[in-house]
Specification:
The chain is flat and about 75 Å long. The chain is built from 12 helices and 3 strands, in the order αααβααββααααααα. It has a 3-stranded antiparallel β-sheet with strand order 1-3-2. A hairpin with a 3-residue loop joins β2 and β3. By secondary structure, the chain is mainly alpha-helical. It has 2 domains: 114 residues, no CATH class; 86 residues, no CATH class.
């Protein structure tokens, strides 16, 4: 990973929905992000050295207490540590740069040619001359209105919105596209009765994370397995020891 690459994309929904992140406290989240930032700047890897990782994460003497959960998010090798998602982001950046560079070379070749002299590009037939003003762009046709939910889909949406408004005492800003798809996916997995059970558990005994970050269908989807297993999922989640 080139050290000159200044930034990488971040996906908040994926981050907050990750089961390991939901188990982290503020100190562990901070340590995780500091290690990600240092890893990106240092070419995609960090040494597998507790003293260095403790210093970079700024946990110092508390590193042994936060280490296991934080490091479960990374791939730990004998001497190095790396992050799969950061590697994918780097590959995407490299491919995008190659595509843009190739397009730039083709454009330069068409304009300048092999002799290094500028060539006039042909105009489209009956097109405007270089001195004429550009024509007004045509308006794109309006997108069709979203399909109105019906059947179990509509029932599930209404059930969630009602539970939300009873809990929060505010109207829920429902997104027909994003929220509608989440409801469809959950119905396909758990059916209508299972969806209602999930909603009841989500609002009936909310955790501190949901209270702090606001209730939403997106957050509920991230906790779907936990909610449907009535707490048993926490006993099943086991992270391999990296010691």
């Amino acid at each position: 990973m080139a050290k000159g690459t200044p930034a990488f994309q971040f996906y908040p929904a994926d981050f907050v929905a990750d089961a390991r992140v939901q188990l982290m406290n503020c100190e562990q989240i901070g340590a995780y992000w500091l290690l990600c930032c240092h890893m990106w700047m240092e070419g995609g890897v960090l040494p597998n050295n507790d003293a260095i990782l403790a210093r970079l994460s700024r946990t110092e003497k508390r590193w042994p207490k936060v280490k296991q959960l934080v490091m479960s998010c990374f791939v730990v090798c004998k001497t190095k540590v790396y992050h799969k998602r950061l590697r994918r982001e780097k590959s995407k950046q490299v491919q995008l740069r190659k595509t843009r560079a190739a397009a730039g070379k083709l454009g330069a070749k068409a304009r300048w040619g092999a002799d290094g002299k500028r060539h006039s590009l042909p105009l489209a037939k009956n097109g405007p001359s270089p001195s004429s003003s550009p024509s007004t762009p045509k308006k794109k046709p309006a997108a069709p209105p979203p399909v109105k939910p019906s059947g179990d889909h509509a029932t599930a949406i209404a059930y969630f919105v009602e539970a939300y408004e009873k809990t929060v005492s505010l109207p829920y800003a429902f997104s027909a596209g994003k929220d509608g798809k989440i409801v469809k996916d959950l119905l396909a997995t758990f059916n209508l009765d299972g969806f209602k059970t999930m909603v009841d558990r989500y609002f009936g005994d909310p955790d501190q994370f949901s209270k702090d970050n606001g209730f939403s269908l997106q957050l509920m989807r991230g906790k779907a397995n936990t909610l449907m297993s009535a707490g048993a999922i926490e006993e099943e989640i086991k992270y391999p020891s990296i010691d």
